[in-house]
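Homework help thread (please don't just give me the answer)

Our assignment gives two proteins as sequence + structure token strings and asks us to describe the second one. The first is just a warm-up. Here they are:
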Amino acid sequence: MYKYKRVQFGWFLSYLLILTLPIVIGTLIYRTALQNNYIQAQKHNQSMMSLVMNEMDNQIARFQNEISRLSFDQTVHLVCFWRTAIFQT
């Protein structure tokens, strides 16, 4: 009887090990994959923000160049002066 209980206990432990081992391994793999996804998402967000920042800097530089060009344009000065002269009379 004692030998039979010992064998049953051995089977129980082996089945328990067989059941828990995949759960533990799956949990470790899931956690590693989750961490990798988080790191890649951060890198992707950083690169997208860098692209947006560069695009905005380029747009602002274009606007500044255009404003600078328009501020020295004689035609713009004449039109502004002409409008001012019309509205003042």
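The one we have to describe:
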Amino acid sequence: MEENEELLEQAESLSKDIIHIKYIEENYEQALDIELKCLENYLKVYGKYHKKVLRVHEELFVTYAFLNNTTQGLVHEKEAIEISEKVFGEDHMHTANLYSGFGQCTCCRGNIEEGIEYLKKGFAIIEKELGEEHKKTKRLKSLIERAEKGEEINWCKE
């Protein structure tokens, strides 16, 4: 129990520095090191299916995008999706946002079919929750239409 408390304390202390290091200093390599250490600690304490583990995977996706490594970022986004499905459910808005982010980035990477599949999963939830006239619903519908037409979606590149 004492070891878990120490790991949590270390992870919490490190995570406080992330925003400053990543977004103010723009030191993405250092942010990556810290996020990976936080992930390691949270996994030891909480196991895979926990909100804090989910959050670190989401941050790792962003950090890898800043480092122009969307391949590794998508690995973490996929992990975030799996965790969100278990923690929140497949029809939750948080999961929907992950589906649509993964779909957009996957389309950008050239895997259009898989990207559209995830965009549509996110769209179905978002439309149900926000309605068809909401700007987020309209934006996502437009992205799906563009992807289906084969138009380029410039969201992330490697």
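TA reply:
I won't write it for you, but here's a hint about the kind of observation we're looking for: The chain has a mean pLDDT of 90.
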